[in-house]
Amino acid sequence: MTVNREQVLEAIGKVSEAMKTMKNDSLEEKYPIGLIDIHLWEWPQGVGLYGMYQYYEETKDEKTLEFLKNWYRARLKEGLPEKNVNTCSPLITLISLCELTGDQALEAVCDEWSRWIMEELIRTGDGAFQHMITGDPNDGQILIDTLFMTVLFLAKAGIYFGRPEYVEEAKRQFLIHIKYLYDKQTGLFYHGWDFNEKHNYGAVRWGRGNGWYTCGVVDFIDMIGLEGGIKHYLLDTMRAQVTALAELQHESGLWHTVLDDPDSYLESSCAAAFGYGILKGVRKGYLDRSYLSNGVRALQAVMDQINDDGVVMQVSYGTPVGNDAQFYKDIPISPMTYGQALTLLILMEGLKLEAS
Question: Are 181 and 144 contacting, i.e. CB atoms less than 8 angstroms apart?
């Protein structure tokens, strides 16, 4: 099963360039650090940089590498924000730059923040990383998002600095988050869990939240060379999730933002995350090839959402945990850096599909 390589390459170029100039033109943001403007240090920009670095690794595009270096230089000169789960997101790409350049100033930042995660990040029930964010500790709360925003960096820092206890903690966090967020009846994930009140908030099976697991787990396994029982456990969980996702995929190739609520809007970033995880999972032998068609349909659907300027449309804005499905339906749609980044990831898997 193939895709048009030239169309994918054209889309990659447009999406990457659009991300480099992304800014907020109209949406009134309520968070202390804006989530749209690429030149800010927060989790959406961190995901964007991650996608951009994967693009560089695949293409060796020097302009992209220079953009990344300049982005970090500028943010470090400005001064970094408070440490929390979400502001850890840009570090996963920063440590990749350390690997590439050996820059000791960048290494010092990664060392400081990884130590903070291990020693000072607030823990809640079972030692889970509490989903503390800028301006709000979110007492007792864990979210599926944390695995991508913080745990991937911690795992990579453990490899880079030769600290196996970091890698073991990353494994532990995956297991804890599955324990409290995985819905055994559907095979999907809830967005969050409250250790204080002992509930999954609205018990909503939200699209992009599920996507953080689908795309994050395949990268996590590769990142640390995971083998043995934990690898099988994480992949068994992914396979159950993908089985459920295959049944819920809309005829367009996208998924609803509330996965099992057909009255909720169709959303692009979760489709890109699912498609990336599925295509990579098939390529690596983690998933049965019968799911390849779901991944390709997602790829084509996401490509259809790229406008002439390279902006990925139909992406939901940053989303805290909600107490009912309507909360997620009311999240506005806006171009976002993570929409661009997740699209880059699935597009690059599309190229590997063509080559395989």
Answer: yes
* Type of residue found at 351: L
Structure tokens at 218: 């395949």
Q: Please give the single-letter amino acid code of residue 325.
A: A
Structural contact between residues 4 and 353, judged by C-beta atoms closer than 8 angstroms: no
Residue 186's Cβ-side half-sphere holds a number of Cα atoms within 13 Å equal to 17
Provide the token pair at 68: 């990344």
Query: Quick check: 89 and 46 in contact, CB under 8 A?
Result: yes
Enclosing H/E stretch for 319: none
- Whether 355 shows a pLDDT value over 60: the answer reads no
User: Which of 22-31, 280-289, 342-351 comes out lowest in average pLDDT?
Assistant: 22-31
Q: Where are the beta strands (DSSP E) in 235-332?
A: 255-256, 266-267
**First vs last Cα of the chain: how many Å apart?**
9
Q: How would you class 77 by CB atoms within 10 Å of its CB: exposed for 0-12, middle for 13-18, buried for 19 or more?
A: exposed
Residue 266: phi, psi to the nearest 5?
-75, 145
Identify whether the C-beta of residue 112 lies closer than 8 Å to the C-beta of residue 161. Answer: no
Q: Is 145 a catalytic residue?
A: yes
pTM over 0.85: yes
Residue 32: pLDDT over 70: no
From the candidates 145, 194, 219, 261, give the one annotated as an active-site residue: 145
